Amino acid sequence: MVTIYSNRQTEFSHKLLKNDLTAMLVFGHENIQYLTGFTGNAAYLIASHTSYTLITDYRYVNRAKQESHNCNVICRDRENEALGVCMNRLITDAGLIGFDAAYVTVAMWQDITRDLKCQLQPITGLIEELRSIKDDWEVRCIRKAAEIADAALADTLEQVKAGITEKQLAASLDYRMQQLGSDGVSFETILLFGARSALPHGKPSDVQLREGDFILVDFGAVVNGYRSDMTRTYVYKTPTQEQQHMFDTVLKAHTAAMSEVCSGAECATVNDAAANIMGAGGYQKYSGKGIGHGLGLFLHEAPFITTKNKTRLDTGNVITIEPGIYIPEVGGVRIEDDILVTRDGYECLTFAPKKFILE
Question: Residue limits of the Creatinase N-terminal domain (predicted)?
């Protein structure tokens, strides 16, 4: 593990030099974890070419010392030393200092800059660019999270019966993932029945399952902070002709997009392969604008699979492919897998069967 973080810090130092930065103030907890290994919050990182200083308080200082790699851990007395004063004391190199602009509120920044006496430059995407290419350890974590999700779903589907509520089934799925070793849930589980499945990010309710209902479940497990994200859609008992057509179209779109994935493929090309199928099926206005995203410490991170993104996929990206159709008052269908981009194609990390009918 020490080598992993040393390599990341070395790569980040090269990025600092390339951007003429002496150091960077890192505020995003996921970015701090990526560079140091510290998994807590209430922490701030000063990353320079030669040193990494992690600022926290009494609640996390011992944990930070245990988890972080190649870091000088500082315990700040929050009552007697403002964060800006502390940072000013620890920044010894003159020059341009970047800061993690996407993770700072206006109020926080005003408070810090009142005391910080250095030249500052807002920076976005510098660490996230590194994070988009997963190393072997990161892939193993995501793979394990996906395995847990696969197994938990299989167990939970055995509980499907008329009268069960969305909340009950979602709670069972979440609990089973944690029984199988998940650190928590990747995000609040989306589990919806019937017409409510047309809500792309709906919240489980007390609605009961009836025969002929869609069942849409979008969920994920977490291992060492790394997330999985999978969606499956079913119909309970016998589907209507419309329901079957929706499912068949989404599955065909999903397959078309997957066939385009390889290192060097444009994100827009992958997206449009699915969008064209959905349009040909008559569902263009009922499908979303993007069909996937990067996956890692964030649920949604670069690269994003959208029609306007000309970024090319790279070996080591872990992305989702998740085309969907959402028709108000009728229901929704989404099929989502996590895949590792390889030089010649991809490796699928999620394996739950894409069957449609649940008896």
Answer: 13-133
